[in-house]
Amino acid sequence: MAAVDYQQLLQDVMAEALGGGARGRSADYIPALAAADPGAFGMAIATVDGAVHGVGEWERAFSIQSVSKLFTLALALAEGGDGLWRGVGREPSGNPFNSLVQLETEHGIPRNPFINAGALVVTDRLLELTGDAVGAVREFLRTESGNPEVGTDDAVAASEARHGHRNAALAHFIASYGNLRNPVDSVLAHYYAHCAISASCRDLALAGLFLARHGVRVDGSRLLSRSEAKRINAVMLTCGTYDAAGEFAYRVGLPGKSGVGGGVLAILPGRGSVCVWSPGLDAAGNSVLGVAALDALTTATGWSVF
Ligand code: DON
Questions:
Q1: Which residues line ligand 1 (CB under 6 A)?
Q2: Which among 160, 140, 132 has a CA at the least distance from the CA of 65?
C-alpha cells in the first residue's frame, strides 16, 4: 500500500475548505475571543506512531474552550472510574451547549459531559479526585504534546468569568440538586481556566492520540481501557458538537469535539488524530472552516468510522 503523503493531503484539504466561501463569526459572548479573525486557519494530523504534519497556522496557540471537555472527561474516568456516570448522562441533548432547559425535569443530571452543564459536573469530579482540575488537564496536554508551553490564558478566563452568568446559573442549579461536591465558585474557576487553556493544532492533535491508540498514552502507559476509549469516542460522536452532532456525523463521520475558540479535534481510531482551527463559528458554535476541512478530509480519504 502506498504511503500517505500527509502534507499534500493537508494542502488539498485546506485549499478546498478555504475555497468554500462561508466563514462564520467569531464567538463574541466571551469578549476576549471576539477579536479573532474568522478566516484564520490551521490544521494538523498526528499519526499513531507519533509523527505530526500540519498546514496553515498549525503551530499557533488558540483558546481550546470546549475541546478541554474531552480531556476532563478522560481524566475523570481514568481517576475515578464509571461512578462518574451517576452524575452525568451520555445522551445527545439536541439543545445548545449552554442550555438550561433539561436540567429541571432531569433532576440536575446533565444529559452528557460535553454540554456546559455536564462539563461542570465532570470538572467538579476531577477537582475532587485530583485537587486541581485545570492543573491535571494542563499537565496532560503538556506531556502528550511534548510542549511545556501549553498554559492557561488568564485574560480569557477572567473575561469569561465576568460574562459567565449562564455558567454560574447552571452550576448553582446543579448544586441545588446536590450534584456538585465542591463549592460552586471553585468549580467555575477550574472550568473557566481549563476552557482558557491555549494550545495549537499540533499540540491538540498529539494530545488526542491516546484515543486513536485505544487508551494508550505517548509514553506507552495506559490511561484508559480499550473499552473506555471506545466509549469516549462514542460520546464524542453523538454529543461532541452539541445540537449539530447529527450533521457532524453525517458530513465528517468521525468522533469530534469542538470549542468556541474555533478548534475541532477529531479521532481516526487506530490511525491518528486531527485538529483544525478557524475561529469563524456556525450557529451551533462549531468552526465553519474546521468542519468543512474535516468533511473534505474524510471525503478524500474515506477515513471515517463508517
Ligand atoms: O462555557 C463556555 O461557554 C465556554 N467556556 C465553552 C463553550 C464552548 O466552547 C462550546 N463550544 N462550542
A1: 65-66, 97-98, 116, 160, 167, 195, 258-260, 285
A2: 160
Residue 66: count other Cβ atoms within 10 Å of its Cβ.
24
Q: Which three cell numbers stand for residue 5?
A: 503523503
C-beta separation of 68 from 54 below 8 A: no
pLDDT, averaged across the chain? 96
pTM assigned to the model:
0.97
The interface pTM score, or ipTM, of the predicted complex is 0.96
In the chain, the domains with their CATH numbers are 6-301 (3.40.710.10)
The string of pLDDT tens digits covering residues 1-36 is: 568 999 999 999 999 999 988 889 999 999 989 989
Per the DSSP assignment, residues forming a β-bridge with 44 are 54, 275
Maximum C-alpha span of the chain: 58
Query: Quick one: cell of 10?
Result: 493537508
Q: How far is the CA of 153 from the centre of ligand 1 (A)?
A: 15
The closest of 161, 182, 169, 170 to 109, measured between CA atoms, is 170
Measure the CA–CA gap between 193 and 137, rounded to whole angstroms. Answer: 10
